[in-house]
């Protein structure tokens, strides 16, 4: 069970960073013939909070996927938040800005700015929301998984991404755990080219490609992580998760990985899937129990 959501603006009015103030582009929300809810042209980033009836103190911020072109906010957002609520986890669905030269300066920064700000707001309001400030995680699907992995690996570099240069401590931005679902990770040979082109442009700066290839940015500051992927994913090759997992293991960071033979890409909670991938939510719940984050 979950109580109704609260929508929280990420930034004070008129203070969205990197804003070019172009309001000729309107936010778009539509449901396709495939039943998928898609949001695009996001100009007002928010957190939608979903509260369980009996909160257990753990919270997670969910980043829906969509190749940095749209956000699949239903099956990779709201549905997942309600699932977390069913066992006491407070959930926040992030509606983050998408990279767009018409709307934002330094477009590669804006999704990460929003995700870091989301972590900050959740932690600063932990007492209000019955959350333990040391049990706040980040979760992401596909390109949202890339965003969650950049939060996990680059949070301590936040002052470089305008908007966080006046923080007393960057620790307020740190996720305590991460769940990466069929994530875009690497800018190498197994990259999801579309996501990186949206994020960094057609002719990206090699230094930015390196920075946003997050398996290369894993450090001792990266949180414990669960990865979930299907071997037959034709959108984002399974090697993305394997590379990140290997990077975590090399530094002895607690890491688990659930790899399924079938499932493809974009399966969300996998309610309609056949085969073992259908059980990933149970695997995730068990991982959270093992980490002391759920019962």
Q: What is the helix tally?
A: 7
- Reading the helices and strands in chain order gives EEEEEHEHEHEHHEHEH
Shape descriptor:
globular
| Average pLDDT reading | 95
Task: Give the strand content.
Answer: 15-25%
Describe this structure as you would to a colleague.
- This protein is α/β, with parallel strands linked by helices and 295 residues long.
- The protein has one domain: Alpha/Beta hydrolase fold, catalytic domain (Rossmann fold), CATH 3.40.50.
- The protein contains seven helices and ten strands.
- It has helices spanning 74-85, 107-124, 143-154, 193-200, 206-211, 239-250, 280-290; strands at 2-9, 28-31, 37-40, 46-52, 59-63, 90-95, 136-141, 177-181, 225-230, 255-260.
- It has an eight-stranded mixed beta sheet with strand order 1-4-6-5-7-8-9-10, sandwiched between helices. Strands 2-3 form a two-stranded antiparallel ribbon.
- Helix 2 packs across helix 3 (143-154).
- The longest helix has 18 residues, at 107-124.
- The protein is globular.
- The model has no long low-confidence stretch (mean pLDDT 95).
């Amino acid at each position: 069970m979950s109580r109704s959501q609260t929508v929280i603006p990420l930034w004070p009015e008129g203070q969205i960073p990197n804003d070019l103030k172009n309001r000729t582009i309107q936010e778009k929300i539509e449901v396709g013939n495939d039943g998928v809810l898609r949001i695009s042209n996001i100009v007002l980033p928010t957190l939608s909070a979903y509260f369980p009836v009996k909160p257990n103190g753990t919270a997670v911020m969910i980043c829906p996927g969509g190749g940095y072109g749209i956000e699949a906010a239903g099956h990779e957002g709201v549905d997942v938040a309600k699932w977390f609520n069913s066992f006491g986890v407070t959930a926040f669905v992030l509606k983050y800005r998408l990279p767009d030269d018409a709307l934002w300066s330094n477009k590669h920064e804006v999704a990460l700015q929003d995700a870091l700000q989301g972590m900050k707001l959740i932690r600063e309001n932990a007492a209000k929301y019955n959350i333990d400030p040391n049990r706040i995680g980040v979760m992401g699907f596909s390109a949202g998984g890339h965003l969650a992995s950049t939060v996990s690996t680059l949070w301590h570099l936040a002052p470089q991404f305008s908007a966080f240069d006046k923080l007393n401590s960057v620790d307020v931005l740190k996720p305590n755990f991460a769940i990466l679902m069929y994530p875009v990770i690497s800018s190498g040979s197994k990259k999801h080219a579309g996501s990186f082109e949206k994020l960094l442009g057609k002719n990206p700066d090699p230094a930015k490609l390196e920075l946003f290839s997050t398996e290369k940015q894993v450090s001792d500051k990266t949180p414990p992580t669960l990865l979930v992927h299907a071997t037959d994913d034709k959108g984002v090759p399974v090697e993305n998760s394997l590379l990140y997992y290997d990077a975590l293991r090399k530094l002895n960071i607690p890491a688990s990985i659930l790899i399924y033979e079938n499932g493809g890409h974009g399966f969300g909670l996998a309610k309609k899937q056949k085969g073992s991938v259908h059980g990933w939510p149970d695997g995730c719940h068990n991982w959270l129990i093992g980490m002391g984050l759920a019962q």
